[in-house]
């Protein structure tokens, strides 16, 4: 298969599945457009775990901060922006910024769709709005324990 399981001894994580039929995204664009521009993103397992752990720790921190009013978590776009802000000192060009953004978006997609570490919440009243579905509210699965 194109993607590796998290507990696999293989040290590469493919964030695009070759040979898989393009799926229509919530926004109506198909993934072939993204895959053509990204040319199949590959990151090491260690880099994947580093990005994933940063995202999970940030979301857990938000959950703890807002525990009283039940607003823990963040929108997908807010999480991407937060991550890019964290690594901005390491980014030297617009191309590198674009690549980092694609990587973090794919990592989030994998954490939601494949690993089920993040849960995507959609308000039922706003479920018909395209923006809400394309930018869901993300929280960490309550049973997830961060691997060290």
Distinctive features:
mainly alpha; globular; three-stranded antiparallel sheet; two-stranded antiparallel ribbon; 5 helices; 148 residues; disordered N terminus; 11% strand
Description:
The chain is mainly alpha-helical and 148 residues long. Helices cover 44% and strands 11% of the residues. It has five helices and five strands, in the order βαβαβααβαβ. The protein has helices spanning 31-38, 45-65, 76-86, 94-113, 130-134; strands spanning 12-14, 42-44, 74-75, 118-121, 137-140. A three-stranded antiparallel sheet has the order 3-5-4. A two-stranded antiparallel sheet has the order 1-2. Helix 2 (45-65) packs across helix 4 and helix 3 (76-86) packs across helix 4. The two termini are 26 Å apart.
Gist of the model:
With 148 residues, the protein is mostly helical.
Radius of gyration, taken over Cα atoms and rounded to an integer in Å: 16 Å
Shape: globular
Q: Work out the strand percent.
A: 5-15%
Structural class given helices, strands, pairing?
Answer: mainly alpha
Distance between the termini: 26 Å
Biggest beta sheet attributes: 3 strands, antiparallel
**Helix content bin:** 40-55%
| Alpha plus pi helix count | 5
- Compressed to H and E, one letter per element, the order equals EHEHEHHEHE
Sequence stretches where pLDDT stays below 50 over 5 or more residues: 1-12, 17-38
Please report the total strand number as a whole number.
Answer: 5
- Report the mean per-residue pLDDT as an integer: 75
Instruction: Give the strand order of the largest sheet, numbering strands 1, 2, ... along the chain.
Output: 3-5-4
């Amino acid at each position: 298969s194109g993607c590796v399981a998290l507990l696999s001894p293989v040290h590469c994580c493919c964030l695009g599945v070759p040979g898989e039929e393009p799926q229509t995204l919530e926004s109506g664009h198909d993934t072939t457009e993204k895959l053509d521009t990204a040319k199949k993103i590959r990151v090491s397992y260690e880099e994947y775990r580093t990005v994933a752990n940063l995202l999970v720790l940030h979301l857990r921190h938000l959950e703890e901060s807002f525990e009283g009013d039940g607003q823990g978590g963040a929108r997908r776009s807010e999480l991407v922006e937060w991550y890019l802000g964290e690594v901005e000192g390491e980014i030297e060009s617009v191309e590198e910024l674009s690549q980092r953004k694609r990587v973090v978006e794919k990592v989030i997609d994998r954490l939601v769709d494949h690993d089920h570490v993040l849960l995507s919440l959609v308000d039922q009243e706003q479920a018909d709005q395209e923006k809400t579905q394309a930018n869901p509210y993300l929280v960490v699965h309550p049973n997830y324990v961060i691997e060290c």
